[in-house]
Structure prediction request, 427 residues.
Amino acid sequence: MSILDRLVSRHLDEDTLARIWSEASPGDGGPQHVHLAECAHCRARYAAFENWALEIRDEGVSEADDAFPPERLASQQAHILRRLEAAERPARVIAFPRLGRPVTASHGAPQRWVAAAAAGLIVGLAAGQLLDLRRSFYRAPTVHEMDVAQKGGRRNYVPPASAPSLASDDSILLYDGATAPDIPELQPLDAITPRMRDTDQQSR
Amino acid sequence: MTVAQTAALPPREADSVAASAVKAYQAEGRHADARERYTELVSRHQRRASRIAFHYLRDAAEADEAVQDAFVKAYSHLGSFREELPFEVWFTRILINGCLDRIKARTRRERWIVPVPEAPAGQRDFAERVAGRGPSPEDQVLARERRHKLAAALVRLPERQRSVFMLSHYEGCTSREVSALTGLNESTVRVHLFRAIRRLRTLLSHQLAADSSAVKGEKRVHS
Prediction:
């Protein structure tokens, strides 16, 4: 229907139909409009408009109801009750972890062995290095060093012309040159030290 | 008053009685009894709540969560419920606020996250799988198409118009009830409803015209 026709016949336009529809309450039993009561054409148009609105409603309601079948509603209710029950239960206190252990802590035993072995190896290497150092500090004197020491320390030492044969330990001890070396600094000490030979003669 | 006795009462009065009983049980520390009595309220309002949440969120899983949240929240805040206000109105307000919060959160999320493409035709939603009884596959396709168009048109409505339209047209609420639910003036509710239906009619008729021209174009190509 053109605008000219509507103006001539003074039928209701779409906006007016929409306004009448939106102002009618759901349980009122139809719109109270003078023109609608008189004009069959507009009544038919309004009925078509109402049907269209009802179709939309049915479509929307059935879509929502299809999305929530009875099974889903039952599971929803169970969920709600479970959540209510959980909310009323006192909160469980979870102890704060003392050590920030990794998640793979269950495989700790072999790891501990590996760590111990590694530590042992490191300690061993370190000890080895230390011993080496000590040896370098307290190393055995060389032949040359021994010569120098003999020459310096025992300058006045004169070996005896007739040294006894070193057949036994006793003969070494009885040997005068061995027990009383000719060192001037030690001679006063030598003089007051009893000799084995003297004690041997006294016991006889 | 027991559950059997309240069943004979009109729904609103029954709600009020049940809510008062739950409140009293909670105050006495009889939580199991309170929960049991609350089940009555849940079963009475669950379907309607799910429908409202679905219309707001357009996603069955999210609507399910929103309904659960609203019921849990209503239970824990039942102490602040005033008996002179219908439980339905109080609860629906909690639900709608929850839905609007979710929509806001979703909008924020979508700003940063690229949406996942829809599942292929073989993998359908739980609701679609369960609802597969009755109409033929062709009817199902057509119905889905219609629903899709309607949903697209509803999404294009401003938020207040959409809320008013869904509550008054889908849920059959009067202007006064919608006013109590949304906090809008009664006359404003009527204006929003009028604008919503007018816009929907325009949008859907445009879609119809676009569809028919597309069909004509296809026919021309085939001939």
